[in-house]
# Entry
Amino acid sequence: MKVLKFGGTSVGSVDSILSLKRIVEAEKTPVIVVVSALGGITDRLIATSKIALAGDEMWKTEFNSMRMRHLDMIDTLFKEQEKHQQLTDIINSLFEELKSIYYGVYLIHDLSPKTEATIVSYGERLSSHIVASLIRGGRRMNSRDFIRTVKKQGKHVLDAELTNLLVKDAFAPICNVADSSTVAVVPGFIARDRDTNETTNLGRGGSDYTAAIIAAALDAEVLEIWTDVDGFMTADPRVIKTAYTINELSYVEAMELCNFGAKVVYPPTIYPVCVKNIPIKVKNTFNPSHPGTLIKQKIENDSKPIKGISSISGTTLITVTGLSMVGVIGVNRRIFSTLAENGISVFMVSQASSENSTSIGVRDEDATQAVEVLNQEFAKEIETGAMFPMHAESGLATIAIVGENMKHTPGIAGKLFGTLGRSGISVIACAQGASETNISFVVDGQYLRKSLNVLHDSFFLSEYKVLNLFICGIGTVGGNLIEQIRSQYDTLKETRQLKLNVVGIASSKKAVFNRDGIDLSNYREQLQDSDISKLKQEVIGMNIFNSVFVDCTASEQVASLYQDFLDHNISVVTANKIAASSAYDNYAKLKQTALKRGVKFLFETNVGAGLPIIGTINDLLNSGDKILRIEAVLSGTLNFIFNTISKDTPFSETVRQAKEKGYSEPDPRIDLCGKDVIRKLVILTREAGYKVEQEDVEKHLFMPDSFFEGTLDEFWKNLPTLDADFEARRQELDKEQKRWRFVAKMETNPTTTNGKQPVFKTSVSLEAVGPRHPFYGLEGSNNIVLLTTERYKEYPMLIQGYGAGAGVTAAGVFANVMSIANI
# Structure
């Protein structure tokens, strides 16, 4: 025998109630069906009673609306005249009773608990008549005949012993038959007081409880809860798009998830069937073929440390503190007794080991009363100063991670708090029982979504690890990067279980943001008018987990935002050299903030495009080596120019070609004046462990200063005047079998120190190198770096390859993004 419970959404519409009919009639064994009121009716019954209590005649409109909803459903479902008329008469009769009660409330302006309990009972009484008439072999039974309650401390609670006896007697005729020709239909939620016979109820969600009570009393083979979801989810799917259905849960795990906000099953439902070891199956009325979630005593072959993440928003944390609490027996008893006597539920407790502080989590709506009654309880202690007045902090959220295997998996708590910390989320209070089934903690409510997402992702509940990318700049580098991400998206999901979710794309004048991800195949069409000044607000305001800001611009305004992003635990990957080559104190602060916040500030492509230069220097230093000398050709633009210049291709033409091929900055003068190389040299020197500013670099340039003044148009117009001089100098080089290279150098003098740091100097200059020099054969726009270190002193380390170009630069940025994904 099975017990099937159908919730309000399962009987809330014609389509859903017909699905109910198909599900029940397909059963081959005896079944008992427990039904809730039509979806939303219980709330409307209560709301209408409040309107009547206020003396507002609008209660009649609400009442008629409820009546018509039920009658319209009957008109649609029942075409047979006789059955239609019989059911209509029953429903109208019940509504006439209800109307009289409402009218009484309206006249005398009184709504006692007894009257309210009677009013809300009509929801299930009405729906059960409809379902019983619809199902083949349906027989309606009155739950008030066998579900009994007793009043304790002002509340109606189940009289379990009497109820079990009455249930067995009531259902004996059905349980003792082998077929399913008769289907008992029971209104859930409703009960009757043992002593007064007045109508009572089992509380909101009580229909689940009714079904569990019946299943336990009759030793059912299974209790099925039919609702509008496929089962328990790993997290709230409205918040976490990647949440999925949990196949199996233990009773303990299900109870913990229910207590902390998962509304799939009413928490008291689990206990009666758990005692009898009766499994619970949660199924979807609208998707009956889905296996749902099975809840049972023991889960076999269960390797996952946690099963789900649940949460309660609208949390207030009340802190009871005072020196008199230390070592005093009975303080906590007084706290919880006082709250219980006033009907206030506590769902989390966190106590300091010093015993001078206890924090309790209550719902926001209970906070004011809780503070008031606790202040009254400890009034004497507060007056003498032995205790402080209650402190309440609202606007919080409580999160719980649940799983029985946590006790067998070391480091879960450490991983939990480390993950939150790296995401910039502070834990205000936490609690963990000795059973280690549940670790619950309180955070600021504004970080609830972010917390749930980062934990879901971190604990491998998600099928994929997710990085949420904000890409600024859609020119040659940014455009190439977006295309590379788009083309690799499916491959990374398949081979790395990594989802690169681009949630923001911005240019200097347009932008698009979407926390669910942007379609990269047509992102340019999605761009809306915006500007850089709004960028910080959008990126930080989205407050999204695992965020990475990617800067593919050369904008000083964008670079100025990095500190704010890092302060909000947003990693920064940049091809923009401005920040890392800015004032040393600013550079150092960015690095320190990233380290402190547990995020990344990566700028490998600042030097050498996609070449692993900065990463190699970092690896050398981290392994204990010391950089003594750096010699490098760092400008792909200048190397292209001096490799291309010839008798037939004058200097001005090579500059123009460098611009057209995307090797140079939009304004080539940044390359030609050596500023770009100086920035790169400063960055490498700093990464090598030396404090240097751009002004410290000696400059030996190859063009008159006048060419770097005026407008860009004037520069292009005057540039050919240099061609003759460069050609004459080039011919001299040919005779000597030498080539031009614009060389950046950092040289130390180990024998001379300034404090603990060796004296060093930095310089950039145009040099002529012969055939035996490593720089001589450098082709095209390639870069080359020679690193002389304490370990690589006799034979310096050489790094060489493409040092310019949108494709390789974008690939270098992509590699930095991937390194964050590998954390």
Remarks:
- Residues 81-108 form the longest helix (28 residues).
- The chain is about 40% helix and 25% strand.
- The mean pLDDT is 90.
- The radius of gyration is 37 Å.
